[in-house]
Design goal:
Layout lengths: L2 H30 L1 H12 E6 L6 E2 L5 E13 L15 H6 L4 H25 L6 H9 L3 E4 L4 H9 L7 E10 L22 H5 L1 H5 L3 E8 L5 E9 L7 E3 L3 H10 L5 E7 L5 E7 L7 H8 L27 H10 L9 E3 L3 E3 L2 E3 L9 E3 L1 H7 L2 H10 L2 H10 L23 H5 L3 H7 L10 H13 L1 E3 L4 E4 L2 E2 L4 E3 L4 H13 L18 E9 L4 E10 L8 E10 L3 H16 L6
Parallel strand pairs: 2-8
Antiparallel strand pairs: 1-6, 2-3, 3-4, 3-5, 6-7, 8-16, 9-10, 9-21, 11-14, 12-13, 15-18, 16-17, 19-20, 20-21
Helix pairs in contact: 4-5, 9-19, 11-13, 11-14, 12-18, 13-16
Amino acid sequence: MNTYERRLGLLAVLVAFAMTAVLAQLFKLQLLDAGEWREAADGLVTRTTVVRAPRGKILDARGRVLSQDAPAFDLAVVPAELPPEPRDYSLWGALARLLRVEVEELLERVAPAVAAAEEQAERELAAGKSRRSAKDVRADHLGRPRVICRAVCYEAVREIELRPLANAGFRALVSRRRGYPGGEDFVHVTGRHGADGAPSSLLEARFDVELSGRDGEVVLRRTPGRRASFTEVVEESAATPGADLHLTIDAADQRMARQAVEGVEGAFVVIDADSGAVLAMISTPVYPPEEFAQVYADWSDRPPGARGNPLRDLACRDFHAPGSVLKPVTALAALVEGGLDPEERIHCDRIFRIDGRPLSYLRCNGVHGDVNLHEALARSCNIYFQTLLTRIEFGAFVRAGRRLGFGQGTGIELEPKGHCGNFAEDPSDREAWPRNLRIASAIGQGDVRASAAQVARAYAAIATGRLPALHVVARVGDRETPRGGEPLGAPEPALARIRAALLAAAEPGGTAAGYGLRAYGVACKTGTAQIGDGRLHNAWIAGYAPPRAGRPRIAFAIVVLATDLHGADECGPRLRSFLDTFYAGQPG
């Protein structure tokens, strides 16, 4: 074989290899990559639009709307449609005035939107994965509306619609904004739905998935022609609206509770003692929901426990020194584990002594003489209960508190996980406390803390013999929320003794006498927890009342922080004013 033939053969082999490579690539494009290229081609002639699902409402026990989406307008800018010359921006004067900003400020809002569009286009081109031309990529990103101002007034929308040439580049987009018809009464219950990157809170956050629903989609195809537009619907999936939350709280009862603690820093919780349903729960001070941003700006950099902070939830997310409303815990511990004879009398001359040494800071509020359990609870004798705690293991006191729900979550949907106060520690840790600090716990002083919701729940347990799981949500859509609760596990004779003494507290000689509470059959305990230097107190009243006037058996707790009045004087009249309206003036 001569040289010419060898070269011709080599050429044939090379051509064969080349043809094989071309055929392999065609095979890959036609069969293996066909779907990917078809999808890319469709992307040039179709556009997918997300259809936002309507967010569910939050409703009170009677179906009144507390939180819902409302139509709104957002102001958007389309960078590709902006005037080419900066001098044309002077035409925006009318729009700027309606937005209550200067033209320069409007320019400052537009500039970042334009820059972001250009940056996203450059990023896509730099990635090298786009099959579109550079012109198409830039047209896509610069042609998308970008929101620069939310919830603009209708006058601004009208200005854009009536003068499109003067306002070239601007569009009014229809959107939804969360509104709160429940107002100030429910700011610590419903919370808020996050917008513009802000987090959601309370029920809006806890049930975000259920409220959100499922978004839908509409796929549109570009129609051919000189002015091509996406008008033909190719595929459509409907949005599924979010579920509504139905609460156990009646807005009218919530308003009554708020009026009862108006003007002070405090909380009021009312629950159905049998079911654990929250009937009213208010924390004051409050604020208008629409002013959240300003309130948050004013208070976010202050200490969490700062006085007067309207962002604090004093009802179920904050813990307070409970004072004498904790004395039934000491009584239950002594009766169940300490072998207390309820008829035994302990002498009170106002001074408490340890090993014969008087401790003035553990003194009583009066000279009660010789008192038994019934009289000590009704008249709130500190000496009696401090003496009881010296006779029993401190762990018995902690166990009795936990039996009544202290040191654990109440079940209410508003509580953060693990948010339970300070009865949860191992009782053996408390045995190492200084003795006087442990003794102070017997009367709700020292280091013990409880929320108003925990206190109301504890008194429901005393009333019914069952510790209910609190809940503020009755239904999610058509699905009822799970109920819970457990038997108290305390001997009925011990509970009967405590109930009789709490009933006597509202009768002549009791700490809550003089406020007309006996007319409603109220059994209660007042409390005055010293804070700071002792001149100010946390004032409490907690208890329960039997069913009447179509109302269920209720348990309640009121706390007023940092007041110079004692528990009965501060909270007794507030409770009576609430009961008068709650029972529609029908005692007996």
